[in-house]
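go over this record:
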Amino acid sequence: MYLGIDLGTSAVKVCVLDLDGRVAATASAPLAVAHPFEGASEQDCRWWWAATREALESIDPVVRAGVRAIGLSGQMHGAVLLDEDHLPVRPVMLWNDARAAPECDDMLTAEPRAGEIAGALPMAGFAAPKLLWLSRHEPRNHARIASVLLPKDYLGFRLHGRFVTDPSDAAGTSWFDERHRRWSESLCAASATEVGWLPEVRDGTAVAGTLLPDPAAQLGLPAGVPVSVGGGDAAAGAVGIGAVSGGDGFISLGTSGQLFVTTTDYRPNLASRIHAYAHTLPDHWFQMAAMLNGARPIAWLADLLRRPIPELLAEAEAAPPGPLFLPYLTGERTPHGDTCIRAGFAGLGETTSQGSLMRSVVEAVAFSFADAIDAFSAAGSAPDALLAIGGGTRSDFLLQTISDVTGCRIGRTRGADIGPALGAARMARVAVGDGTRADVMTKPAVERWFEPCADTMQAERPRLEAYRALYRALKSVQAAMRVH
């Protein structure tokens, strides 16, 4: 058995593969996010360990006892700060934390080549600007830092006791030299970071260490089994869906959203706000449009209305087109690079129903992928067919809407909702020599293709243009609100 652990934003998911690479068991445990002030998004890293224990408790003890390797995946960009005793200095500032926006400009001033080196311009959610912010606003906490880890690598430390990361997670920090796959001294200097705080970088299928006796007992797993390095959630998702060769692509519909294409060389394109990152696999990179608000607005509206998501989605599918929705609950990266923009409805009326609100939210998620594909087109590569992973793939309506709006065929595979946990388990299998990359990291069969409807595409075009105009209008309104 091979265990994959995926540390997401809203849940820890675990996946167990049998010796033939088939999914034998899955489980998850929820996570909360704290927002201590506007623009802040945090989690206590100790919650992650508790959720991992909870998720694994749902797996049959016999299955757990048969685990022979563990792989890791996790949310990217979070800064886990540990002191000399390896204890957390403060809560973890997450990928969608916006407080360090001013520090991004200061990093660029200090190192004008930051975007070219790191594959993307500094953004508030990345780890490096957060460390610069911390040095200015929490200098006592900054002075206590002895080690910095990415979220999945903190789980790795709890499992095997070592400080190790992979190229794909390192890529999302704004400290990593993507072309040469090493920490950049100039980017660290520009962000009040010591290179010595950062973990060793190994490929995702390398063994980081072996499971220590105490965590093994807590998790009900065999002590001494190898733990592979794993990958950031985007790259691990690519491994899970077989996007491991040049040109392979997919979309991810989790809390955040991504449009991901594997490349065999490093292709930064800062003008299009496409991230160019090192893959977790050697000699590969990827281009990615990163949206901070993937399927999250769907869950947000359901929570707000206190209604089950499937029930609201059924009403949405039956509702006619209604209001427009801007889905930027926590700002947006691709294509805007705007940490300040927030969400909003436009065109509400007396006849607006809860179903029509949800239809507008689903439509807005699809529009964000249309913007992502346009960004890829501007960078010279527009996909016409993509596989899909993440919890959002459970909705036929969402996938069909994305296909209709973007003009892309969207394929849903078996286990698409498992996503990065599957990729983590696959990397664990390769790490212990129970198969090669070519044998293990295959593309799963597509259970259903969602084909774009030409008539719907034509009908949605004016609404897409109105959605883009709404961003410009709401941006000016919110700017005026901040002034006053």
